[in-house]
DNA sequence: CAAAAAGTATACTGGAGCAGTAAACAAATA
DNA sequence: TATTTGTTTACTGCTCCAGTATACTTTTTG
């Protein structure tokens, strides 16, 4: 029951970009060194953030990464989902056929887990990158 | 980001025991068949629930399992922790030395994750087995 | 006391995901 | 055109997951 390391690195990388002067691209190496993230590993994570529209990139000399939108519009859930996909507390919440009780309303466990999962999603989406910049 | 299958089976097994007549032991095979849990797998899970004081067992002919305490005093968190250990959203919440920022108050990511983790724990402990019996 | 019926403990297995590394590739700039 | 940057794909060692197998202990019953 945890986030994976890539997601943690993603949080820190995006927060770091948010703290740079607006729309200035920062080299991967600068991000990696300042956040103590293995450079190669960071490079593998960034494309997921780009596809999600959270970060933009620039290639070639003087290239790097910058935020693609306002830090107030980037939640921790956005980053988490970009990197490790949506939260599913239990496989029966992905595919109801996997529920031995054929899902709600009979399966009370299913209902409880669905509720907890929704709260968890709300908790992650309740934090924006801007909230962490103070 | 999910509970493991053993924990899900644990939820269902304990709920099933709670629905039996009080303090009557039920064979593992009955539990396994009714909850569609592989018998051998269930047998491996049960000792964790016993060590946590949630379930008691009886060996020999006519043996089986029964609840060890009131369903109102068994939360989903109790079962989850018995089977897969405590929830740690991130490794930096286990050992602050693993936080690249040496933990709070400097590391805002750390603080946010600690808050979300606490809410998640509360959400799981907010459901008792009795709540699921209705 | 012996046999059978339960649960207990330990170890194994195939598969998947995690964390990180490596190498070839593509684009942008000087 | 050479260099610098990011992109893509594949690989590796490791751990955990889900489930299975085997040998063992306890308890009851005949």
Quickly describe the structure:
Two copies of one chain form a homodimer. Chain A has 134 residues and is mainly alpha-helical. The first copy, chain A, contains five helices and two strands.
Question: Please, could you describe this protein's structure?
Answer:
Chain A has 134 residues and is mainly alpha-helical. Chain A has helices spanning 5-18, 28-35, 39-51, 76-84, 108-125, and strands at 55-58, 64-67. In chain A, strands 1-2 form a two-stranded antiparallel ribbon. In chain A, helix 1 crosses helix 2 (28-35), helix 1 packs across helix 3 and helix 1 crosses helix 4. The interface between A and B is large, with 36 and 36 residues. The structure holds a DNA duplex (30 and 30 nucleotides).
> Beta-strand level of the residues of chain A, as a percent range?
5-15%
- CA radius of gyration of chain A is 18 Å
Spans of chain A of at least 5 consecutive residues whose pLDDT stays below 50 are: none
Oligomer: homodimer
In whole angstroms, the N-to-C terminal distance of chain A is 28 Å
Count of runs of 4 or more consecutive helical residues of chain A: 5
What is the topology?
Two copies of one chain form a homodimer.
Chain A: H1 5-18, H2 28-35, H3 39-51, E1 55-58, E2 64-67, H4 76-84, H5 108-125
Antiparallel strand pairs in A: 1-2
Helix pairs in contact in A: 1-2, 1-3, 1-4
Chain A binds a DNA duplex (30 and 30 nucleotides) through residues 4-6, 27-29, 38, 40-41, 43-44, 46-47, 57-65.
List keywords for this structure.
elongated, 46% helix, 134 residues, 2 strands, 5 helices, 6% strand, two-stranded antiparallel sheet, homodimer, DNA-binding, mainly alpha
